[in-house]
Amino acid sequence: MTKKERVLAVMKKEQVDMIPAGFWFHYKSDYTVQQMIDEHMKLFRTTDMDIIKIMQDYPYPISGKITCADDWYHIQVKGTDSEEFAKMAEIIRGIRKEAGKDVLIFQTMFGPFKAASMTFGDDVLMKYSKEAPEAVAAGVKIIADALEEWTKGYLEAGADGIYYSAQFGEIGRFEKNEWEELVRPYDLQILKVAEEMPEKYNILHICGEPEYQFETHVEWFKNYPADLINWSVKDNHFSLEQGRELYSSAILGGMNNKGNVLNGSEDAIREEVKGILDAFGTKGIMIGADCTIQGENISLDLIKTAVEAAHAYKK
């Protein structure tokens, strides 16, 4: 099997020749196009992982100032004719050219609500979400409409799908009815783009926030369109086996993103991978981490060990 065939088989919960794996981490936001291409290809080639997740840590070009509720109706987002989008699309095309066609490439996207938080601040966003939810919804819709076009542009530039970071379902942030009105519609607006295009895919990452101890309502995302789904097992105390019962999607993850793959021994990494697969089985799973690998001295050698352990697994 090619890497692409292997991951597609996992999505369909078919038997694979070996268990695929994928890991990622953040890059510097001041990287040039070529530096970003080079760093992604270095990770891919060194570790032999099975997909490429493009982690472009560039901010979305959103402008405006929130001093009152009415300001949410007047924020602006640059379109796909912007310099900022052109840079990201060039990176996708460059990685596709380097990687070839036999591996799936996913563009990381943050949801419209998270984009608003990064632009205006979480405190401001939450304040007006409680005081003026209709105004916030209008502003988030402006962002979502723009990011929907960005998503189409990413896929047209050569990405096979979107790795969507779904946030703002954290325990203690919103009541479910608030979340369903303010957050969910705009998540789905972005996710539907790949869902409705032929041979395009969604990886859904259910992401928590540090101020909420990374704990999130994993059950709220049950019906999100996803070909692979990922969440923090350790932070939510929600196992891969429980996820298999809850979600219809195949599963990505299992490993502690701040544990062995960051600073453990090779033997510990192999044991962790083996334990995950012994418990879960070999269908409908791709080995990865709870979230991006976070911490100092990230080691490509340790990531390679985890990939190799997945590839070599025999029950």
From TrEMBL:
Q: Which InterPro entries match?
A: Methanogen_methyltrans, UROD/MetE-like_sf, Uroporphyrinogen_deCOase
What's an example of a GO molecular-function annotation for this chain? methyltransferase activity
Keywords, A to Z, come to:
Methyltransferase, Transferase
Uroporphyrinogen decarboxylase (URO-D) domain span: 66-313
What processes does the entry annotate via GO biological process terms? methylation; porphyrin-containing compound biosynthetic process
Keyword match Methyltransferase: yes
Lineage: superkingdom = Bacteria
Keyword rRNA processing attributed: no
Task: Output the Pfam families linked to this UniProt entry.
Answer: URO-D (PF01208)
The name on file for this protein is: Methylcobalamin:coenzyme M methyltransferase
Question: What species was this sequence derived from?
Answer: Blautia wexlerae
